[in-house]
Amino acid sequence: MFKAIPRAPLLLGLAGLLPFFWGLATYLNQPLGEWALLTLGGRFTAPFVQLSYGTVILSFMSGVLWGFATKDTDWTGYALSTIPALWAFFMVGGGPASAALNLCIGFIGLLLLDLHFWQRRATPPWWMSLRLLLTGLVVLSLLPLAFG
């Protein structure tokens, strides 16, 4: 299952984690959070940056899965690919803690969908190596907000 990840997807995937970890930093470090709020505004400060970006990424990943579904003639792949975006739309709301917890659940569910498409050989061979790494780091960045 663990294959070497090509450099470009690895570096771009890791760069895509920056908003999650910036949000975590502004959540855990009060002076940084206050500076970010005054300088950058609430949109780029925890919890908003993590929750809005997480919603965008779940929706983006629905599109990625839709692309994988095109490699199969079975309609279920298309249906499954819509789940992350629908999850984000319906479940990421309310207070910050419940929204962060629902994002964690959404990303773990996405990982299961990734596994489904990987097992059907619709993804690159290294896909699960990348997705396990990125999903683990995303969930770790959201847990303090979910349970803080």
From TrEMBL:
<dbReference type="Pfam" id="PF11911">
    <property type="entry name" value="DUF3429"/>
</dbReference>
<feature type="transmembrane region" description="Helical">
    <location>
        <begin position="130"/>
        <end position="147"/>
    </location>
</feature>
<dbReference type="InterPro" id="IPR021836">
    <property type="entry name" value="DUF3429"/>
</dbReference>
<feature type="transmembrane region" description="Helical">
    <location>
        <begin position="99"/>
        <end position="118"/>
    </location>
</feature>
<keyword id="KW-1133">Transmembrane helix</keyword>
<feature type="transmembrane region" description="Helical">
    <location>
        <begin position="49"/>
        <end position="68"/>
    </location>
</feature>
<protein>
    <recommendedName>
        <fullName>DUF3429 domain-containing protein</fullName>
    </recommendedName>
</protein>
<keyword id="KW-0472">Membrane</keyword>
<keyword id="KW-0812">Transmembrane</keyword>
